[in-house]
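dumping this here so i dont lose it
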């Protein structure tokens, strides 16, 4: 069931006899509401989508959840009003370029970002995720400069799969790269994926891994396009 069909259903359930009646109740032109429900909410302004959701007593996230789950009503836990979101601490920025020092963070200046749980898949109920802002171009074919990434901490290299994107430090400096293991030559390889040719693999021999720490793997990212 589409978002538009869910909205139509909730309008009728709330006692509105027509689109016009609902549009007038929430303060938008009837022609605008008709266009939203005909052409799709995805083409409407966020302000108008918020007005529609508010008029129906739901949030935008709940509407997305209802569409995803094929439900006609939000699955709310009144004791946990924020259960459809997960708040991640934002630990500064990480270099997607040459190794660099991570932005300093203290308990007093940690910010949080809230992500809808349905966007995190199997990690939706993880309690240890954190977020970083990407600063650099060495992974721009996959994760553009300025993106926000959600990360899952790891304890050992054995938790990684080939080609995972990881947050790591080498000689106490930090970076984000694609992870590969060359067992034949006993090497750990951290590769850029960039439109710029100046970036190169960071290669760490097995016998120098004491200088290496892999903190987390990237499980999600988002970027502002403008």
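and the seq i came up w/
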């Amino acid at each position: 069931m589409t978002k538009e069909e869910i909205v139509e259903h909730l309008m009728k359930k709330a006692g509105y006899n027509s689109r016009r009646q609902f549009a007038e109740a929430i303060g938008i032109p009837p022609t605008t509401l008709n266009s939203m429900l005909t052409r799709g909410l995805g083409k409407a302004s966020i302000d108008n989508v918020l007005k529609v959701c508010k008029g129906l007593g739901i949030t935008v996230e709940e509407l997305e959840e209802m569409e995803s789950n094929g439900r006609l009503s939000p699955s709310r836990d009144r004791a946990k009003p924020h259960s459809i979101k997960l708040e991640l601490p934002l630990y500064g920025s990480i270099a997607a370029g040459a190794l660099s020092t991570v932005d300093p963070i203290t308990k007093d200046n940690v910010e949080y970002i809230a992500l809808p749980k349905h966007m995190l898949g199997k990690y939706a109920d993880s309690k240890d995720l954190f977020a970083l802002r990407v600063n650099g171009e060495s992974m721009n074919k996959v994760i553009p400069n300025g993106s926000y990434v959600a990360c899952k901490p790891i304890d050992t290299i054995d938790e990684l799969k080939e080609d995972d994107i990881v947050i790591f430090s080498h000689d106490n400096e930090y970076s984000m790269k694609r992870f590969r293991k060359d067992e034949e030559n006993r090497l750990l390889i951290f590769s850029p994926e960039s439109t710029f040719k100046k970036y190169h693999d960071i290669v760490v021999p097995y016998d120098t891994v004491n200088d290496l720490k892999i903190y987390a793997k990237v499980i999600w990212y988002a970027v502002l396009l403008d």
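The chain has a mean pLDDT of 85.
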